Amino acid sequence: MSLKSLSLLRYSVRAYKKDVSVEDSKLTYTLECVRLAPSAVNFQPWKFLVLKSDEAKEKAYPCYDRPWFREAPVIIICCADHSQSWKRRSDGKDHADVDVAIATEHLCLAAAEQGLGTCWVCNFDAEGIRRAFDLPEHVEPVALVPLGYPVDDNAPVKTRKPLEEITKEL
Ligand SMILES: Cc1cc2nc3c(=O)[nH]c(=O)nc-3n(C[C@H](O)[C@H](O)[C@H](O)COP(=O)(O)O)c2cc1C
Questions:
Q1: How far apart (Å, rounded) are the C-alpha atoms in residues 88 and 20?
Q2: pLDDT averaged over every residue in the chain
Q3: What domains does the chain contain, in order, with CATH numbers?
Q4: Helix residue spans in the chain (DSSP H)
Q5: Pocket lining: 144 vs ligand 1, CB cutoff 6 Å
Q6: Overall pTM > 0.85
Q7: Nearest by Cα to 75 from 6, 144, 168
């Protein structure tokens, strides 16, 4: 599949088939694609908590209280480790967020390639996640990603700014 086709196929899934689990082989493939993501100076300043058990998922639910979030058989907490990330010398900018974002999109695209659905979730209670999963100060939960089979296989039409608006030829 071309990257453009895959980009059109991936969409934010907010309805999951509740009783259909994710095959271990598909989860492993998805996480392998995460592992292969690039990062600044190849520091790989990330940790991915893969919540499969009801007990673990129950701890995450209050931090993003939406009915559809509870339907996904797997939730992945994508974390940045600020103790391992590259900081730019000229201005000190910490690139942990950038690195985790790239790996998280690898996750979403790899899932879509295999017929699975995901949704980036950043509007969650970060302190709650920290407490629930005992994350140390230097580990920041950046995104929660539910993973499962979408109820609707058809990706909605993308609404995006036109190319001319977002690019500038110089
Ligand atoms: C950084 C980031 C944070 C997001 N946070 C949320 C969120 O908290 N809840 C949600 O339902 N969708 C969230 N989204 C999904 C966006 O709303 C969605 O990607 C956008 O509307 C484009 O739609 P598409 O993903 O279906 O192409 C987030 C997406 C990104 C990239």
A1: 44
A2: 98
A3: 13-151 (3.40.109.10)
A4: 3-9, 24-35, 54-60, 96-113, 126-132, 163-166
A5: no
A6: yes
A7: 144
Radius of gyration of the chain (CA): 17
Q: Is 12 in the pocket of ligand 1 (CB under 6 A)?
A: yes
Q: Using CA atoms in the order 148, 23, 143, 54, what is the torsion angle rounded to 10 degrees?
A: 80
Q: What is the pLDDT of residues 16-44, one digit of tens each?
A: 998 899 999 999 999 999 999 999 999 99
Atom 19 of ligand 1, nearest CA residue: 12
C-beta contacts of 19-24 below 8 A and 24+ residues apart = 20/73, 20/148, 20/149, 21/73, 21/148, 22/73, 22/74, 22/116, 22/147, 22/148, 22/149
pLDDT band at 103 (very low <50, low <70, confident <90, very high): very high
- Fill in the amino acid letter for 26: K
**Cα angle vertex 95, ends 33, 7, to 5°?**
40
The CA distance from 38 to 102, in Å, is: 7
- How much distance in Å is there from the Cα of 12 to the middle of ligand 1? 6
Smallest CA separation from ligand 1 atom 11, residue: 121
Structure-token pair, residue 145: 């990603």
